[in-house]
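Anyone up for a design puzzle?
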């Protein structure tokens, strides 16, 4: 066992961080998409 496995900074599971990152990035791109749809509807 190496030094980094003995002295971990966070004991949380990586699944929660990965899920939060996926949800936030998905929401960000969804907001950008809906803004573009709104501008397209206004422009036409």
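Challenge accepted. My sequence:
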């Amino acid at each position: 066992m190496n030094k980094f496995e003995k002295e971990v900074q966070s004991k949380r599971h990586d699944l929660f961080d990965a899920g939060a990152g996926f949800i936030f990035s998905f929401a960000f791109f969804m907001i950008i998409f809906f803004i573009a749809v709104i501008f397209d509807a206004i422009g036409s």
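A detail worth pointing out: The chain is about 75% helix and 0% strand.
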